[in-house]
Amino acid sequence: MTRIAFIGLGNMGGPMAANLVKAGHAVSGFDLSEASVKAAAEAGVDASKSLAEAVRDAECVITMLPKGQHVVSVWTDLATLVTEGTLLVDCSTVDVDSARQAHRLAGVMNCPSLDAPVSGGTTGAAAGTLTFMVGGAESAFAAGRPILEAMGKKIVHCGGNGAGQAAKICNNMILGISMIGVAEAFVLAEKLGLSHQALFDVASTSSGQCWSLTTYCPVPGPVPTSPANSDYKPGFAAALMLKDLLLSQEAAAQSGARTPLGAHAAELYRAFENGGHGSEDFSAIIRMLRQTQTS
Ligand code: NAD
Q1: What is the CATH superfamily name and number for domain 166-294?
Q2: Where is 6: in which H helix or E strand?
Q3: What's the 5 CA to ligand 1 centre distance in angstroms?
Q4: Residue 113, SS3 per DSSP
Q5: Does the model's ipTM exceed the 0.95 cut?
Q6: Domain residues of the chain, as ranges?
Q7: What is the mean pLDDT of each run of 10 residues along the chain (295 residues)?
Q8: Which of 18, 114, 224, 293 falls between 20 and 30 A from 73, CA-CA?
Q9: Which residues are within 8 A (CB) of 77 and not within 5 positions of it... i.e. 6 or more apart?
Q10: Which protein residues are within 6 Å of ligand 1, measured from CB?
Q11: Which fold would CATH assign to domain 3-160?
């Protein structure tokens, strides 16, 4: 049993904290939203009224917050609140620079730290089947691994500070590009009079096979559990896909990597969000591609 403070009890953090409770850890939780704290308390999390109250006596602090600025701000506040040696873990998806800044703040506090973003969405968070992509020192990883195992089924140590975030944004750049590719193929098939099922049967068993096709198929029918079958209710919202694509483009600009398709995917998802579709599943971009083709 570890005393864990969980900061950020939203769509992801709430169920993740609940799984830590189920695994027998003592979890205190804090969120700016009272409703989120209340929901977490119903799952056995000890509700705190402030960050200070939540992290008091914690052996490990986990943050699951929207953006890099929130993580850096909370980790800055932790400096006066946690004791040396407390393990600090950020599971949010943030830019690599903010992740490294958070690690530097932990270093000043003499606290081991990990960036540990996740893949698997809210379903994976609830089921405890997330994949964690982890950056940080070997010793910090060894300390954090048993805690992460209570929330996920695959824990990958990707390298030093920031390597987890780097893996996350590279993976999601593949995802954004591949979803657009699959959606374009279905739009073309429609124009050519080829049925959705026929394209699926061929592509899913040949070289076009990918997760965007076989798990999140952007047309209803071939994969009954894909969001296309429930009017594109997320799932993984288009606004979050845009956020991750923009993080990849920021990292590409800073590192000098050439990612033309990543840049184009970000442009298309920005147009989709500007059209008022940010809260739809990211596979709904097929609707915009159909319109673009006929206009
Ligand atoms: P969310 O908006 O549901 O939850 C974030 C929570 O952080 C909110 O409840 C908010 O009130 C709280 N918060 C913000 N600032 C705070 C502060 N200073 N102190 C305490 N609480 C604070 O978002 P989410 O969907 O849970 O996503 C969290 C992170 O996980 C994001 O970085 C997101 O990109 C990433 N992520 C989300 C998904 C997904 O499918 N939702 C999948 C993978 C990764």
Answers
A1: N-(1-d-carboxylethyl)-l-norvaline Dehydrogenase; domain 2 (1.10.1040.10)
A2: strand 3-7
A3: 15
A4: strand
A5: yes
A6: 3-160, 166-294
A7: 97 96 98 97 98 98 96 97 97 95 98 96 92 98 98 98 97 97 98 98 98 96 96 92 97 96 98 98 98 60
A8: 18
A9: 51
A10: 7-13, 30-33, 36, 64-66, 70, 74, 92-93, 118, 121-122, 236, 240
A11: Rossmann fold (3.40.50)
